[in-house]
Amino acid sequence: MKKGKEIRPHIGIFGKRNSGKSSLINALAGQEVAIVSDVAGTTTDPVSKNMEIGGLGAVVLIDTAGIDDEGMLGEKRIARSREVIKTIDLALLLITENTIGDFENGLIDEFNKLDVPFFVVHNKSDLNPLTDETIHKVEKELFTRVIAFSTLNLPGVDELIHEMRSFLPETAWKPGTLVGDLISYGDTVLLITPIDIEAPEGRLILPQVQVIRDVLDHDGVVAICKEREVDSFFKRMEPKPKLVITDSQVFLKADASIPKEIPLTSFSIVLARQKGDFQQYIKGTPKIGELKDGDRVLILESCSHHVSCDDIGRVKIPRWLSNFTGKKLEYDTVAGLNAIQRDIHDYALVVQCGGCMITRRQLVNRLKPAIDAGIPVTNYGMAIAYVHGIYNRAIQPFVKTGIDKADYL
């Protein structure tokens, strides 16, 4: 596996209070990174722990509150633990004393609903050995595996890591290429990267870095310039680029500067194809033209950042959508993976950022409620391209010829 293509899988640890979730994390880490106590409910909120695990690599382990927590606060803790399921690539369900009851079955229903792979860990097996009856129930009724585990039997950690590795989907380790399938050996990709008030001091933003690495991993050549230099640079550039990728905010400038025979798209659209449900984005973007007065638009920016006076998600996209439609629209913005406060049916459109800071599963599950409700979804770059009249060109690099092309365009 090429290091530059790794992402960090998210693994959630679930179970009742005092089932040994924190002890299991410490056993995996080989050190005490989680607080362990005989007092029920020591872990009160989901806690993420970044770590390197031998035989598994770099992962994020999420220690959750007990699913049998009690009282008003307990219910809130359980709700927060269940929210974690939307963000993980794999779940470990800890049980003890060969008991799988309503609490565990409720979690299993959530795992299956969100298509999260899971297996069962019978913890504290030194006190109560795993029985054949439990093995049969898990394999025949829950359609997964169960392993015996005890923190007193450290060789059992190897079996646990083996199961984690086998249950993690490949996409948790290595997402699809960004542009590698669009270029050949030695091809040049031109990146247009404006340096404005939103650009971080002294560095490029993450999508730009990710594209650079992906091009290099596929034996391509990267050329980078700002939008003000693109005209003069392009005239001198030889050979001409196989692909041009621009920041969505300067789409119009890039469209005017780059000849039509050269494919042009944006960093956000490149990420949309890799991480999002691209078919749903293609289907939902043209619905921008059908927005009506009073419609509410949800903008999802899946990271937390300093908000500038001309913020792309909170200022520019709402302005462009309102100007394009000529309608009086209402906007809500939700940052990070925070819960959406309104009923999803209140929205006529959902606009999702590229999602460079989150995993593919997190992004897919973020959009799932809207898609299930039949609400159109689009992406920052695709929405910007649409309102600027260059949508067809922006998605062209990722559209197949023939009937598929006709369906898209």
Task: Write up this protein.
It is a single chain. This protein has 16 helices and 14 strands. The protein is α/β, with parallel strands linked by helices. A hairpin with a 3-residue loop joins β2 and β3 (about 55-65). The model is unreliable at about 1-5, about 35-45 and about 400-409 (pLDDT under 50).
CATH superfamily of the largest domain: P-loop containing nucleotide triphosphate hydrolases
- Summed up, the domain count is 3
Question: Which CATH top level class of the largest domain fits?
Answer: Alpha Beta
CATH topology of the largest domain: Rossmann fold
DSSP, total strands: 14
Spatial order of the strands in the main sheet? Answer: 2-3-1-4-5-6
Q: The biggest beta sheet, please?
A: 6 strands, mixed
* Inertia-based shape: globular
**If classified by CATH, what would the architecture of the largest domain be?**
3-Layer(aba) Sandwich
Uncertain spans: 1-6, 33-44, 401-409
Strand content: 15-25%
User: Could you tell me the mean pLDDT?
Assistant: 86
Q: From the alpha carbons, calculate the radius of gyration and give it in angstroms.
A: 24 Å
Task: Provide the helix percentage.
Answer: 25-40%
Sequence of secondary-structure elements: EHEEHEHEHEHHEHEHEHEHHEHEEHEHHH
Q: Structural class from helices and strands?
A: alpha/beta
